[in-house]
Amino acid sequence: MSYPLASMSARATAPPRTPPSASPPPGAPPRSGGRWVDHWLETVRDLETLRAAHPMMDAVIEEVDGRMIRVGDQWLADFASCNYLGFDLDPEIIAAIPAFLEDWGTHPSWSRLLGSPVLYEHIEERLTQLLGCEDSLVLPTITHIHNSVIPVLAASGTIFLDARAHKTIYDGCLIARSRGAAVRRFRFEDPDHLDELLAAEHDRARLVCMDGVNSMTGNAPDLRAFAEVARRHGALLYVDDAHGFGVIGERAADEQCPYGVRGNSIVRHFGESYDDIVLVGGFSKAYSSLLAFIACPTEVKNLLKVAAPPYLYSGPSPVASLATVLAGFDVNERRGEQLRATVHRHSARVLDALAELDVHTPNHSQLPIIELPLREHERIDAVGRMLFERGVYVTLAAYPLVPKAEVGFRVQLTAANTDAEVDTLIGTLGELAEMGELQSASATRIDEAA
């Protein structure tokens, strides 16, 4: 199937949407200046305007064919997917689902404390072996884990929170603070600042919360340095590696790419032990399944079974997701290195092209998340429309989701993207660079040196 891409002069075929008006429509009740919703609408006004009118925000995707997606009449190459290994489209994994549905139905509705299907036990056993940790516990989502586990681990102690940590980690820390914990912020990628804060802290109960592979920069932190600081000060290090699990893993002499092998996450990638480290990750990205996990000692796992609300009260993941995790383990063992090598090859091609174009990206890891800030943040609408018209679908990063200096878009590469799709992306980035829409790498280096 071929997908003709529109020319630059062509208009996006998705129907335009009208941004919300400042005044209510005829017949609607007048807005009250004191309503709580008005405060929020003003806070997210830029984002809401973009969401309501832009074809690449809140889009309805009507059809997929590989990594090509259709929005309205427009086919686009999808570079917004986080299905890094392409498991969402893998025929072997898809074919494994019906047998599980035949045995278990579509959804075991018990909470895990009430009744835990043996599929969970199988997943935790294989996951623990893959990660090389003492034990693991799986729950529906990473958000569930942050909101329930961080308050338990923090108790009434002090949390040291990465200043650029993901919003869901931040929310989990706010819940912990509402229950008596204190929260301190340390500078992004700065273990020395964390060291200073921990040295000055008198509270003996200390929890450090941070990301693994960053969801915007695509870079991993210096985990060895952070782990050394945390251990020296008697703190527990809590790491969310949602984007690293399945992609990076332990290093090996015969590895096919710098990501390492096995995709067993950031702790193994840095050759670290799990001593005083709690690792959180998810299957929703590399494994394309609705499930998440926490790697922790068995003692902590048993505590969470009676103290973490998702285990006690939440409905479980669908059987299809449990099936795709188990099938994904098999595919990862047999073909994972080949798939990771493909992801790396695509990512390296794009990063090499950006270097030739003198385009700035914070990505220095060659991991498949490539952030591209705009030279002028006000151009996010126009640049997004050009990408859409060229048949390139990306993740827009608008204010206030990111600071104005970082407004732009994020590209994710997956094993299911084709070379032709990457060619289209690189060609479009070249046009944007020629138009002066993207930040210059050389100018950024001069600014940072100053």
Number of strands: 14
Helix content: 40-55%
CATH class of the largest domain: Alpha Beta
Q: How many helices in DSSP terms? A: 15
Give the radius of gyration: 23 Å
CATH architecture of the largest domain: 3-Layer(aba) Sandwich
Compact description:
This protein is of the alpha/beta class.
Could you walk me through the main structural features you see in this protein, from its secondary elements to its overall organization?
The radius of gyration is 23 Å and the shape is globular. It has 15 helices and 14 strands. It starts with 35 loop residues before the first helix and ends with a helix. The relative contact order is 0.16. The protein has a seven-stranded mixed sheet, with helices on both faces. The chain is of the alpha/beta class. Strand 8 (236-240), helix 9 and strand 9 form a beta-alpha-beta unit. It has two domains: 36-87 and 336-449, Aspartate Aminotransferase, domain 1 (Alpha-Beta Complex); 108-317, Aspartate Aminotransferase, domain 2, CATH 3.40.640.10.
